Amino acid sequence: MRRNVLSAAALACTAVLATAMPAFADDPSPVPDTTAAATDSAEQADGTGPSPVPSDRGASEATPAPAEDTDGVTVVPRGAPDTGDAPVAEQSGGDGLLIGGGAAAVLAAGGAAVFVVRRRASGA
Amino acid sequence: MTPFSRRAVVAAAVACLVTGCGGGADSDGPVATETPGNRSPAAAGSSVSRPSPLARSVPVGLEIPAIGVDTPVVRLGLAPDRTVEVPPITADDPAGWYRYSPTPGRPGPSVILGHVTVGAHGDGVFRHLARLRRDDGITVRLENGTAARFAVTSVRTVAKADFPTEDVYGDTARPELRLITCGGPLEDGEYRDNVIVFAALRATAP
């Protein structure tokens, strides 16, 4: 019986370690953040600074008069505005779900193993 | 001993499942495509006496007391793909006025955009835009020292795929205002919807 308890404890520890490893490995990766920031700043700079793609686009954008001089919208933009950069916690939400699901699966497997061991030990 | 250990294993598995599911259900926000308020902004307030339009002057500040907004306003143009530019993603992100729309207080729809969230910086300037209700006040300060005071006529949450271009950018006879941000649930790291506030000029100052 004591062996059963010990084996259950060992399985639980294994499950905790198995779920902790991916969590630790997931955190310290600064690479995506910097690339995202670079993209954002590039887009912003593109709108305010001189355009890297010269004459064609620049000419077409410069043609319409700013609406400061008219009443009504002089250039209707294409599509819907993208006015939300998702919070970091939301972006990693999928990872959290995966880790949680993995932990649940490992624990369930551990529980099944304990059950089998106990059944064998009791000779049923 | 036997029923206890079995219960312990089951309880641990259930707890793990609960925490795992909780990770993904953080704050999807309100379900989209709800339409609190009036859907036909042009009709609202038509019987109210109309203030005279203001002289053309670029907006420099925006106040929305109902949701605690008091922010500078920057100018926005078009992105290379011909979508509207958005304000910079910074800690204290400002709102942005679309420079190809009328200045606030002039006839037509003046368009101001702001972020709902700004990535690692947290909430954006328009985080609570969807909480606005009909008749809430909006004040836009202009570069020449005057101010245009608007009242909300409707708030709409619409799927980006069905963005109401004509309702937002179409001509209007009187001075109106559009405030735009993102909303709805996140899908692959992108907000599914836009929240659009329609407002009409209520007064001018000084």
Helix and strand topology:
The complex is a heterodimer of chains A (124) and B (206).
Chain A: H1 2-26, H2 31-48, H3 55-62, H4 88-91, H5 93-122
Helix pairs in contact in A: 1-5
Chain B: H1 2-24, E1 59-64, E2 69-76, E3 95-98, E4 108-113, E5 137-142, E6 147-159, H2 165-169, E7 175-187, E8 190-205
Parallel strand pairs in B: 2-3, 4-7
Antiparallel strand pairs in B: 1-2, 1-5, 3-4, 5-6, 6-8, 7-8
Features:
heterodimer; A: 124 residues; mainly alpha; rod-shaped; B: 206 residues; mainly beta; Sortase, Chain: A; eight-stranded mixed barrel; 2 helices; 8 strands; Sortase (chain B); Sortase_F (chain B); Sortase_dom-sf (chain B); hydrolase (chain B); Class F sortase (chain B)
In short:
The complex is a heterodimer of chains A (124) and B (206). Chain A has 5 helices and no strands. Chain A has 124 residues and is mostly helical.
